[in-house]
Structures are given as C-alpha cells and as structure tokens.
What we know:
Layout: E1 8-14, E2 24-28, E3 33-39, E4 44-48, E5 54-57, E6 67-70, E7 74-79, E8 82-87, E9 91-97, E10 103-109, E11 112-117, E12 121-126, E13 132-137, H1 140-143, E14 145-149, E15 157-162, E16 167-171, E17 176-180, E18 188-193, E19 199-204, E20 208-213, E21 218-224, E22 230-235, E23 242-247, E24 252-256, E25 261-266, E26 274-279, E27 285-290, E28 294-299, E29 308-314, E30 320-326, E31 332-337, E32 341-346, E33 354-358, H2 363-369, E34 381-386, E35 397-401, E36 407-411, E37 416-422, H3 426-429, E38 438-443, E39 449-454, E40 459-463, E41 469-472, E42 483-488, E43 494-499, E44 503-508, E45 514-519, E46 524-530, E47 535-540, E48 544-549, E49 554-560, E50 566-571, E51 577-582, E52 586-591, E53 596-602, E54 607-612, E55 618-623, E56 629-634, H4 672-680, H5 710-716, E57 735-736, E58 742-743, H6 769-780, H7 784-792, H8 795-803, H9 813-829, H10 833-853, H11 855-892
Amino acid sequence: xxxxxxxxxxxxxxxxxxxxxxxxxxxxxxxxxxxxxxxxxxxxxxxxxxxxxxxxxxxxxxxxxxxxxxxxxxxxxxxxxxxxxxxxxxxxxxxxxxxxxxxxxxxxxxxxxxxxxxxxxxxxxxxxxxxxxxxxxxxxxxxxxxxxxxxxxxxxxxxxxxxxxxxxxxxxxxxxxxxxxxxxxxxxxxxxxxxxxxxxxxxxxxxxxxxxxxxxxxxxxxxxxxxxxxxxxxxxxxxxxxxxxxxxxxxxxxxxxxxxxxxxxxxxxxxxxxxxxxxxxxxxxxxxxxxxxxxxxxxxxxxxxxxxxxxxxxxxxxxxxxxxxxxxxxxxxxxxxxxxxxxxxxxxxxxxxxxxxxxxxxxxxxxxxxxxxxxxxxxxxxxxxxxxxxxxxxxxxxxxxxxxxxxxxxxxxxxxxxxxxxxxxxxxxxxxxxxxxxxxxxxxxxxxxxxxxxxxxxxxxxxxxxxxxxxxxxxxxxxxxxxxxxxxxxxxxxxxxxxxxxxxxxxxxxxxxxxxxxxxxxxxxxxxxxxxxxxxxxxxxxxxxxxxxxxxxxxxxxxxxxxxxxxxxxxxxxxxxxxxxxxxxxxxxxxxxxxxxxxxxxxxxxxxxxxxxxxxxxxxxxxxxxxxxxxxxxxxxxxxxxxxxxxxxxxxxxxxxxxxxxxxxxxxxxxxxxxxxxxxxxxxxxxxxxxxxxxxxxxxxxxxxxxxxxxxxxxxxxxxxxxxxxxxxxxxxxxxxxxxxxxxxxxxxxxxxxxxxxxxxxxxxxxxxxxxxxxxxxxxxxxxxxxxxxxxxxxxxxxxxxxxxxxxxxxxxxxxxxxxxxxxxxxxxxxxxxxxxxxxxxxxxxxxxxxxxxxxxxxxxxxxxxxxxxxxxxxxxxxxxxxxxxxxxxxxxx
Length: 894
C-alpha cells in the first residue's frame, strides 16, 4: 500500500513523559538497577532511575494503555479488553484475550496474573500458558473492585478493596472468601503493603489514610490529609519509618509512623494529581509521576525530612504553539507551549532536553510562590525567534506573548529568561495604545539587535546587550495597520515588514530610510524569509502563498490549494521546497523552481507549527490539542523519490502521526516467517553471508601481508658477518620449522613401498606436509585440513611449503594442480578472503614459469581466473555502491 506522502515518513514523537496511568518500578537483580515504566498513550517508556535516561520504548498498542503492572520477568499492560506481557520492556511475548469490558487493574501474582474489568469481573491467568485459571464475579452495586493487593507471606491470598469501603481477603487457589473487613464508609482507592508483615496502608476517597493489621483486624493508626482523595501510598524501606501519600492537588505528605504525626509536606510536587509514586527499595529516593507530563526523582536529604528534586523529565503540560530548530546541526528544537513554558528537545537523546523556564513578570516572586500559586505568570508565547550568534555573550532569543505588548528575552545557553523586557514609553503615555500588542519579532543575523512589530503599526529596534531603544522605522509608524511580520536579510542591510493591509515595505537597516514597497492582493497573515536565497514567503488571508524576491522586489511564485487559514511555513535548507500547513489539516510541499505542488498529505489533527531541519533530515510538526512534537523523516535522503508535480485535482490521503516508537508494519517484512527470523536473532554466521559478502580470516596481518616480499625482507635482515660456531655447542635434537617446534620423526618402515609411492614415480625426495594434505584431499574434496595447516604456519614456513610443491622442490604437477583447485574452491566459498589472495599471489610469483609450460596447469589457471574475476566483480559493485551512497549523503548534508 503506497504511503500518503512520497517525501515524508513518520519517524517518532518527542515530548511525551507520562500521563494519568500510575507508574510501575522494577528492580533488575543482575544489573542492580531500578527501572520505572510510564505510559505515554499507546506505548510505555522505560527509564533507569539512576539517570532517568530512557532505556526502551515498547511496541505500539492498538489503543491507549489503561493500566500497567510489572514483576521480575515482564511488564504487563492493558489496552481496552486486551492484556499483553512485554519482555525487556519492548516486545510483546504473551497476549491475554477474553475480557468483555475494559481492564483497569492488573496484579502479577507468582505464576499468575490477575486482571479486573470495569464491571468488577476478575480473571486469573496462567502467565506462561495464557489460559484462564480462575474467574471471580463481583458486582459494582454491592462490591465494586477498586484496588487489589497480595499481602506478604499470605500464600495464595489477595486483598480486594471496593468503592463501598469494604475489604475482603480471598484464596484464589480454592476460590473462597477468607474474611470480610468492616466498611470504612468511603471508597478505597489505594492498597499498599507496609514494610511490616500483616500491615496494609489503605487510602480512602475522603482523604483518610488507615494502617490496618490484617491478622488481628485492628486499625493501628489513622491520618487525614486536607487535599482531597488519597491517590497513592508508598513506604520508605531505607530504615526510616516514613509513609508518603499523594493527592489530587499535586501535594505529597510525609508521615512519621513512630511519632504518628505529619513529618513534612512537599507542596506543588506536581501541577496535577500525583498518579504514581514509589519509594525505591533500601534507598532514600522516591520517584513520582503525574498527568502533567512529568517524571521526577526526589531525594530525602532535607533537615525536616522532606524530599528535594534530584532529577526530572518533563514535557509540555499544554499543547505547544510554536516550534523552531536551533543551531545548524538540526539536533535541537525550541518549543513554546500554551502552558507558558519554553522547552528545548533533542532529536538524539532525552538527556539533552532542557527547560528554559516559564514566562514570568517577576522571576524571583514566581520562585517563592511556586508554579501552582504563581500570580506573575505571563500569557503563552505566540511568536519567538532565536539566533545562535553571540549566544554566549548575551540573550539570544526574543518572544512576544498573547495579548501583551511586553516582549521578553531568553538565553538558550543559560536556559532561563533574560534580564530585559522591551516596552516603549509611548504605550504608557497614550491611552490609545492601551490595547496595543506585540505581533512579530526578529533578531538580526549578527545577534546584536531585536526588532519588534506591534498591532499599532510601529516597528521598534532594541539592543540585545544593553536593552537600549535604538530607534523606530517610519514616521511615525511603519504601517497604518497591524504588523504581521518582520525579517532582516543575511547582511544586515535590508529590513522587510509586512502589514495586515497587504503592504510589504522595504527599509534600510542602518538609516531606517524607506526604500519602497510591494502591494499584494490580500491581507497578510505571516511572512518567512530564506536569507541565503533572498526568497520571502508571504501567506495571505485568501489561503494562498506568494513568494517575493526581496532583491528585485517582485512576485516570483503564487501557490494556491489550501482551503483554510495557513498556520505556518518553512523552507528547505536549499530553498527548493516551501512546506506549508493549514487548518484544513493538510501539509503541502511546493517546488519553487517549477512552481508546482510535489507532495500533499492530511493529518488527523491540524498542524499548528512546523519547521524543517537545517540538515534537511527531518520535518517537525505540532498539532491542535496535542502535547507531542512529531518528527517526519525526509525519504529523499535515503531512497529515490519521484518529485513529479501532482495533478491539479489531487486527493490527499490521511497519514498517521508517528508514535514514540517505530511502527512495524507488513511493509517492513514480506511475510511472518521473515519477521519471526528477524526477531529471533540478528546474527548471521560466515556461512550465512557467504553468498552476499566475503569473510576474512581474522589472522594478524603479519602472517600473510608480507608473503610477496619475503625475499626482500630476508635480504635486508641478512647478517653482515657469518655466525660464529660456539666452542662447545650443546647437544640438541633436530626440529622442523613452524610456529610450534616439532622434533623430526624417522619412519619405522622406510623400506616398505606404499600406494602412490615416490620411489615408483622416480622421485626420491619425500613429499612436504602440505603436498601430502593436498593428495589426501584429492579424493574427498575437503580442503579444510589444508587451510588449517597453512593458518598455523608463519610466513617463512608458508614460503617453504609452497616452493616444495614444484617439481624442483620435491613436488609434482599433480600436487600443483591440486593446490590451484584448493584456491579455486576457497574463492568460490568467499571465506578467508585475504589469506587466500596472499597464498595465490605467492604461488604465482614462485611457479609462473612452470604453470605456463604445463597444459594441465594452464587449464586449471583458466578456471581460477574465471572464479577470481566473478568474486572481485561482486566486491567491486558493493564498494561502488557504498562509496556513491557516502558521497551523496556527504554532499546532501553540506
């Protein structure tokens, strides 16, 4: 099935950390590491607790995850009516189907898995066989199951809590109710095992926390938090008798169990309900998650026993409104959201993400009051621009806010708001400008000046280093209407401003002199300049895009096709493409040289902002009511794509947005057998790849690289004076040359004549070990002993062995022919490629004359030439293909 877009393919999503599904923590016994799993919709992420680095991303579920659970082997997830068990937090190995309604509780229980439907129907599954072991029927009107726990040391028993406030202890082996506890007249939301045996912590909807002894049916102590229902409970196990409870208000309370009182409070730990919380075993650490898209690790080192934020991962709490790439490597994306946060996301790894904080009128007061009670928070950022030049000297980012005329500065390197807030005095003195707002901002390529356009038509310039006002364009205003865009050319010589009345004005940067204007047919909504090509893209209110050459000040292209407001535009780095998005949920790619649309696709939710990477590898988009930042891979960098213009009445198709993990579809593998083989093992033995590639022997280069130059090496190493015979030489046994010295063995029955004896052939010299192995391989066709023997020899010994194959060295023509067959067989099998080539080169160097004079050897040489040519032709094609691909990628990324 063809893709909806021929240029872009969904890669992955950024900005997702957690949602309202509680986290689960696993301890890896072998690695001595704790891992936390958080749900992000249709998949879950696994982080290590030591650095909060993402370890793995699970496969995509068919729908959103409703609950998570984990044991020592697997991570279990429920998706609607289906349950899956994941190995290593990535790939599903078991699937459990049989529920009639959505699953909302999972509990691993030894070799079993317990699942609870929303109508309180309980299934007990055998994990390995995936069969139902037991079914238990509860009814919501009498006992609606809301929580479940396996108490420590209680064999085959589970504790079930209900929304009626009743707890029941069941034996799942015999399916029998053991005991029913007295109701607490409030729904039980949480059940948590305490470090002490028989003690269970119960969190109720009215804010009460009850520590109950199951064995004696006695309440040990009660606590009450004033922040509403108890959402989660956890106990410290590092020697401190402390219980932590979470609330819907985002606060965390720490209770001292010895003194039976509140020990400390962690106010505004999250800006939303604390859905997941777990104290790490035997460590003063606690990990929490929330629906505010954050994951935090706390360390208990405060004087009052409270927790301090140690490390965290966060994304936007509200949908992002504007994104732009930062830097020329395309690895960082700046995002501004409706939550007034400005974040930076890395396309390489989450550990490079950072937050530049939340926009505030007074940063000091905001820190004191906290984010939840912050009365100094500014409205969301609607437009921003950043310049990498001079980032280490002063603020290098400027942003305007919704409904505000105050423009703020930011520092990307210091990851914070800047010290300047730009606002002209004219807006304070004149009541006419009471509702004036900042609409557009721009930073010059040199990084020294910021230009601001207002709804009143003014265009002001400020110095970023000092914050001093440096003048205004126009007398008294640059436009008689709202300014919709400001851009500066790459040489700081020309300033272009666009007004809502369709007027594009050109100004001299230094003198602020008006140079001329271009009148467009309709009101302007936004503009975008590609500085290297001087192409200015202007989106109009009639849903068309006009491209203006700012050097000639003429309209050069007009693109029409959108049916709603154009939300954003971006150029490709080479200015050949213009990518536009609209509220009609379409993304269109326009080819500037031909003036035609070459690609178009639809998305489920309209794109609010997009940006093309400076290296052309990714297109980044944000969408309406979506927290994610989506990366689309540019397929033209990896494969051939036809950029033929689309027909005028082209019907675009809907394209699914990428997930946090790669989608595995039928396109990736042709059938299920290939997919199964791929999943089992990625390793291929030398025998498996012999048909495609060649394998090397992995021997040291000194064993074969100098075989053709042994005569030169021996001549160079020849001693200047002959060795002197010692006066009393010790007695020694004669040995044969080789890496492993061997004593010469005399044949016991030298007088006997064997089959094929050298005496009968008229040659009295004995055959060398190599020649004997070649004769043995003549009938069997197995040349492995020959190759193994040569591998054990050093360069000098190999030279002697190959010289001994010729008739002058004690061999014969038959042995030489057999050696050539051995080389031919080795080349065809593509194994031990480099040493076989070295042996062949030495053999030809020593015996070229004999081969040319013997017809039998000439025929073997012809066969050898054919095999050798085919082998090298295959390698040459692979080398050429790889070099072409590397050269293309290098030129495409420059």
